[in-house]
Amino acid sequence: MIKKILLVVAIIIAIPFIAAIFIKKDYSVERTIVINQPKAIVFDYVKHLKNQNNFSKWAQMDPDMEKTYRGADATVGFVSAWASDNPDVGVGEQEIMAIVEGERIDFELRFLSPFEATEPAYMITEALSDNQTRLNWGFKGHLDYPMNLMFLFMDFETIIGNDLQQGLDSLKLILD
After folding, report:
1. 158: closest CA among 61, 28, 55, 33?
2. Mean pLDDT in the chain?
3. For 143-154, what is the mean pLDDT?
4. Is the pLDDT of residue 13 over 90?
5. What is the domain count for the chain?
6. Using an 8 Å Cβ cutoff, are 128 and 140 in contact?
């Protein structure tokens, strides 16, 4: 009888780990906003990582977080780092990896705490007219097996997408 109970318990424990083999490991999020300013003004503002302190939801979550910077802002290699006791903010840094002037900025986000991860992000500007710019803000993420089980319980694309959209809405208020 004990062997049967142990077998049932083992199966119950194994099922999620087997299911995780078939669950996606990657996700991608992008949000867009139209800002009533010329593309050059929008791009020049967003290429400065320090400006994210003014519109990013994550920067707003802990006004007392420690912020440090390395390099020249708005140039490849510039690093903006943060450290917060708030577990929703944590500790990490963001580095500008590539800039296509007037078009695109690629970042690398390195989360150190409460979890470790390195993920790419980007911003792309597109002129809709002389005084109107579409800005896309995107993020890609990855969860290794068996952590990808969290996709069954949390919609990362919606959660992160809402945070990106809130940041874009704040940016629009600043620049419009």
Report:
1. 28
2. 90
3. 73
4. no
5. 1
6. no
- Dist CA 43 CA 73 (whole Å): 13
Contact 89, 65 (CB under 8 A): yes
Give the predicted TM-score (pTM) of the model: 0.84
CA-wise closest residue to 32 among 109, 124, 132, 97: 124
Q: Is pLDDT larger for residue 132 or for residue 176?
A: 132
In this structure, what token pair is assigned to residue 172? 């629009």
How many other C-beta atoms can be found within 10 angstroms of the C-beta atom of residue 2?
A: 6
Domain assignment of residue 94, yes or no: yes
Domain that holds residue 62: 25-175
**Mean pLDDT computed over 148-153:** 70
Q: Would residue 9 count as lying in a domain?
A: no
Residue 81: strand, helix, or coil: strand
* Location of structure tokens 């809405």: 169
